[in-house]
Amino acid sequence: MSTDFLTDLRAQARAHADLLRPTALDLDRNPDLAVSAPGCGLPWRRFAGLPAEYNPDPLRVDGRPVLLDTCVERVVVLEELARADAAAVLALPGPSMSASVIADLADDDQQQRYWETVATEPTWTFFAMTEPAHGSDPGSMHTTLRRHGDDFRLHGTKRYVGNGVRSRLGVVFARRNAGPLGVVAVLVDTDLPGFTAAPLSTLGLRGLQLSELRMVDVPLTEADILGRQRSATRQGMWAATRTFNRYRPVVSCLALGVAQAAYDLVVTQRRRYRTDERHLLTGWEQRLAGTRALVLAAARAVDADPRDGTLAAAAKLRATRLAEEITTTAVRLLGPGARWEHPMLDKLLRDARAFEFMEGTGNIQRLTLAEGYLQGRLTDVRAG
Prior knowledge:
Structural class: alpha+beta
Protein name: Acyl-CoA dehydrogenase
Cofactor: FAD
GO molecular function, one term: acyl-CoA dehydrogenase activity
InterPro entries: Acyl-CoA_Oxase/DH_mid-dom, Acyl-CoA_Oxase/DH_mid-dom_sf, AcylCo_DH-like_C, AcylCo_DH/oxidase_C, AcylCoA_DH/ox_N_sf, AcylCoA_DH/oxidase_NM_dom_sf
Keywords: FAD, Flavoprotein, Oxidoreductase
CATH class of the largest domain: Mainly Alpha
């Protein structure tokens, strides 16, 4: 994609972001607004990543349809939207992370079932991996898929699932056999007996409405198992790893959008600075630009090879730290009572803390970076 195309795409996204700003604080106070007003004023279908056959009116740049089906397109667009409200971006109806698993594993019938459900009306989906006591460690996963006559029963609990309480269907990872290769992904409708979802109270990104899912002998069939036609090495955890690699640049761009929003707020609200404060702002401006370039490079790398998440890990680590630093320091720069006088800054500060726990914590990213370096996938590593 040319630089001119991405510049025009960013400009379009920035114009659309203005639609999210008026509802940002309302959504923070009342997450149900995401359902009563899908998209919070944004034409959600254009930003949901729907395939061409289900998206008759996509976003267009210079007459070219943009389906947001590449990581590069997503990080450019979603960063601009996140400058207005990252929580609203994550609360948009549509496929989200589950679409990556569908693309990698689903057969034709499962693809049709999924996309026809998602595209017909505002529909939320979920991606359920994390468990209360074991996080996302596949070796310790307790959710099970067991044979029950000719069918199956799904049993277990998932936690910290975005949009879980408002979703109509989603992807659940469960253990069918021992070991990491025994983990499979299943497509689950939320109206099945034994499935319940409850919202969790959170400090930041409240619009996302993180949820806990409980599944007590949820009845499933062979047709609900994704990738059942594939070998065990290319089923559940294979697809999950590729999904994490694809979405770490997306989380990075959301964190970057929050960081940029906090920077913008400071320079808008203050006119006079000490010398050290001017140096600080100049440093932030340079680091924002550098992180933006890293996120874009990570997106290009993942589009080229979803198996390699090295740059994606670097981008997520850097963007998350930058968002936390800028939002925290912005409170000091705007003086006593800043969080009270600037409720949007208070929201940005709370939202910034959430990205550390999305698609792997900082330590996970460091391990991925170390592995990539040892395997020769990084030729130049600098601290910072």
